[in-house]
Amino acid sequence: MSDTAAARETEAPRKPPVRPKTAEVPTRIYLVPYPKIVFLYPTLLYSLVAAIYMSLAKPPLVATEPTPVILAVIFLAVIGVNLVILAFDFPRTTSLTLFFVFVAAGLGAALVFVLKPEFLPYVTDTLYRFHPLANATFYWAFAGILGVITLIGIIHAQFDRWEARPNELLHHHGIWGNLERFSAPGLRIDKEINDVFEYLLLRSGRLILHPSNERRAIILDGVPFIRQKEEALTRMLGALQVEVRTENESHE
Fold first, then answer.
1. What are the φ and ψ backbone dihedral angles of 174, each rounded to 5 degrees?
2. 91 — phi, psi (to 5°)?
3. 139-148 pLDDT, tens per residue?
């Protein structure tokens, strides 16, 4: 091999180093505040499961049959916890811990009354006479009513949604598609998680938007996957600031 060929091989162009991929900057982000009823989806799912089981297994609906009673007791427990979540806010982990302490205390007391009936005879007798029953028709009807109301709430929320773009913030509201525009540059974002349970159920929370040309803040409650939404908004607004600064520097 000649010296010229060897030199060509040594002077072969090197491949540029592979750069790590950065997170893609979104061009639009939809923010939809959903109503509180969407947090009842655990009760809806359990109602469907109980309805399917009662329809297929067809156990006799009597107080001496344990399966319908157990299903009904679990249903009451699930809907009770769900209603507590809707009625009260649990803003911190300490309140969440306190809630579970009360639940554990209640379950422990029920076990004591069942295993030690002589402890409080009146309470024990009341628990033994507690036999809630519900057939498949009840579970289907409950799931149907709750499902329809939830679906209506989700559809209604789509008529009051917000759309964030790199240069503007749009508010779509009303059946006829009314539109409001706000300036996106200089937009400040605050995130609040006021209820630990709502965050656990749908990763939802509150977004507070502060447009630069508006005196009042825009408060959006019940926004699901709030952390992902906040991170996407931060990336989009950060890319916009870099672009604006670059343009200003080039003009100077």
1. 90, 155
2. -75, -20
3. 999 999 999 9
The neighbour count for residue 138, using CB atoms within 10 Å, is 16
Q: Which amino acid is present at 148?
A: V
- Tens of pLDDT, residues 49-78: 999 999 998 888 776 788 888 899 899 989
User: Is residue 209 within 8 Å of 217, Cβ to Cβ?
Assistant: yes
